[in-house]
Amino acid sequence: MASSPAAPAETAEVPKHIRWVLLGILLALLLSMLDGLIVGTAMPTVVAAIGGLENMAWVVTGYTLATACSTPVWGKLGDLFPRKTVFLTSILLFLAASVLCGAAPSINWLIAFRVLQGLGSGGMGAGAFALIGVLLPPRERGRYQGLVAAVMAAGQLGGPLVGGFVTAHLGWRWAFYVNVPVGLVCVTWCWVTLRVPAREPRGRAVLDWRGIAFLTGAVSAFVMAATWAGSTYAWGSWQIAGLTALALALLAAFVATERRAPEPLMPLRIYQGHRNFPLAAVLLTVSGVSMFGATLYLPLYQQIVQSASAADSGLLLLPMMLATLVTANIAGKVMTATGRYKVFPVVGSALLVLGMGLLSTMDTGTSPWATSAYMAVVGAGTGCTLQMANTIAQNAVGLRDMGAASAATQLFRSLGGSLGVAVFASLFAGAVAGSAEGGAHVAAVAHATHLIFLTGALIALAALVAAVFLEEVPLRGR
Description:
disordered N terminus; mainly alpha
């Protein structure tokens, strides 16, 4: 096994005025994150206006599927073609689809346009992190890690608030139209300020169409199984078992294809070159489980058990988001100053286990202050783990594969979130089944919360094991 990452094929000093350049890139990332949360808030109004309650879930599922499936493709396109052009193309696709979503005459058309929007979103996420990886060497990444964490926290908190405000005052169609002015500012900003380092010529670009087909099928089958398990179909049903078997078969076919492809969609060398990349993938997957579980079920617990206001659902997560922001800043600055980083994913994973364990102790008598403290522990763990895992993964590969590697990290986080949502939803549904409104229902929700976060703590142990086995490879300074 190699002791250091592959030599880079493109190097450059950190560009001048890099913070201004990063703001344009991160604006696209923020837009992608906000959209999912804004639309989720607007969905009851959408259904009341154009109908289609029975298909409402596909407005979200179609977007999620398209984003997950297209992320690796966009990442590879960024490695083969000019990164700036690929990135701006994905934003323009997202904006065009946003206009179409806002004008959708029926739920079926809305689902179709949301799939198109998800395709653009996949490129925005993959492109943003790949560009950060190219513009900022890992040793310098810590100076700006807090900026990335702040954007992600703003997306988590601002989505429900913006969605509620826009839907109430402008109508549900503006939940999509609001993307357009923000997106145009983003495109103009990046067009003017973004200068991507030149790279070595790679000859004629050849897309791995078989790899794209197999991976798209595998991801689709996995996400659909995770979405339907425990809700639409039982975990042990033939439908879920069939989708799982299909996902595994397509994944095996994808791996076999990648070994022979002249320009593979997701080069296996990024997994085989250094153990840090697959270990970072484990960290990102577990972080996805933790983040989605906390953001979905903590507000539910606080509203039903602790009688918090639903109108302030986004603000209920503030302690966790602030802790994430603070620890990400501290970890990044220490990493840049010392070049040392392994301690942070180890400590962060331990905090995730502890925080999830503390959240699992909540019952009908737990005070809001205690809940906020437990949330802050989870947030501190996420801050030490999430962005650091991205940096570790990108430091483990050469810059020629930065797009594919960045897309893979985003895919792992998304798949972790999908799996976490499926498992937690099943636990929640089983715990509250048959409980009537009133005290019994409150107790059932508290018990469901206990099961969800106890399971989350056990899953977080996998991240702790992965963090312990990380090797502290020197961070690239160029």
